[in-house]
Amino acid sequence: MLAKQDAYTAKTDAVDDAMAWHGGDARATIDALLQDRVKLLEELAMAKACMSRGYTRGWMPGREFD
Predict the structure, then answer these.
(1) For 13, which DSSP code?
(2) Residue 1: inside a domain, yes or no?
(3) Residue 29, CB half-sphere, CA atoms under 13 Å: how many?
(4) Residue-wise pLDDT tens digits, 5-59
């Protein structure tokens, strides 16, 4: 039970930190997270294009959370 509370606290702290970074503006926080997501998907696409199947032994990075 304590581990579950610690995980919840860590997630809550991350949300609180993100909100504080943007001055408590939820809209700005969400906008920044969505922009970061787009950037990460671009980087993932580039990594996928540069990696060979032999190097990864058949595994290729993908968008698992769409």
Answers:
(1) H
(2) no
(3) 13
(4) 566 676 778 999 999 999 999 999 999 999 999 999 898 888 888 877 666 676 6
Calpha distance 3→5 (Å, rounded): 5
In a domain, residue 4? The reply is no
44, 61 in Cβ contact below 8 A? yes
- Global pTM exceeds 0.70: no
| Tally of structural domains, the chain | 1
Residues near 51 by beta carbon (within 8 Å), at least 6 away in sequence? 60, 61
With H, G, I as helix, E, B as strand and everything else as coil, classify residue 17: helix
Is 64 part of a structural domain of the chain?
A: no
